[in-house]
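Good morning N.,

You mentioned wanting to compare the apo and holo forms, so I went ahead and generated the holo version with manganese (II) ion. This is what I fed in:
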Amino acid sequence: MLDVDLHSHSTHSDGQLTPRALVARAHAQGVRCYALTDHDELSGLAEARAEAAVCGMQFIAGVEISVSWAHETLHIVGLNFDEQHGEIVEGLRGIRTGRNARAERIAASLERAGVAGALAGARRYAQNPELLSRAHFARYLVDLGIVKDTQVAFRRFLTPGNPGYVDHQWTTLAQAVGWIRAAGGSAVIAHPARYKLNNQQRESLLGEFRDLGGAAVEVVTGSHTADQYATWARYAQRFALMASAGSDFHGAGESWLELGKVPDLPYGSTPVWSEF
Ligand code: AMP
Ligand code: MN
Ligand code: MN
Ligand code: MN
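and this is what came out, ligand included:
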């Protein structure tokens, strides 16, 4: 088990715990190096950093940026950057504006499928009015009793081909990596096994990402199986990229891995945090 967790979400995006509660939970689980990585949002970092200082834990500024690449949505984690840097602050603000417009289209799509009031309903679960995620719509569908849990909500709604899914243009890979690098940080491809890419597309993503100055691949994550840890550790090595690790914790009952319960990297990986 690692004492590192470089991927998790608070109430500033679609997590269920406040930044303070998350940091306290990470500390209680034995984490010594921790990053908060809310979707497209930096507003939770100050509170998390302050609590980490109280706990005596190393805190890494983080974010998870939504990207459109080859008709797929990718997530790029940024780590260890200057969160005051204008480019990333403004870039993320633009993504959040797009999210709000998307939320209206999601609600309209659900309405056509007979689910009324979804925008107001999802908002009830979103502490941050600037950050509406499909996870908030999923919680509303559970609340209505239409589905038994958020997994089923994503299976029957909110995913391609189902009501509540709408196409959306996020930012580009070049911009996301560029903002992170301009702010002095390290860019990481989050949970790569989750994307629907064939072998050729995987290779072109890794090559393009490395050429843009990307730093690492998230090898160990709650979204990967143990086999996938090995596969992606090999990809990282082949493309001279480092390896990252994080739970992607969103809250008890909504996550595959508990906060801080992150298995070791496969032998031979270079940890991205060795530079922090
Ligand atoms: P968004 O960025 O608003 O499109 O929402 C993506 C978020 O929805 C992810 O970060 C997860 O928190 C959640 N999510 C996506 N797919 C699933 C799924 N199959 N089951 C549960 N949560 C999911
Ligand atoms: Mn999420
Ligand atoms: Mn993600
Ligand atoms: Mn995440």
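The pocket of manganese (II) ion (ligand 3) is lined by residues 64, 75, 190-191 (CB under 6 Å).

Happy to go through it together on a call whenever suits you.

Best,
F.
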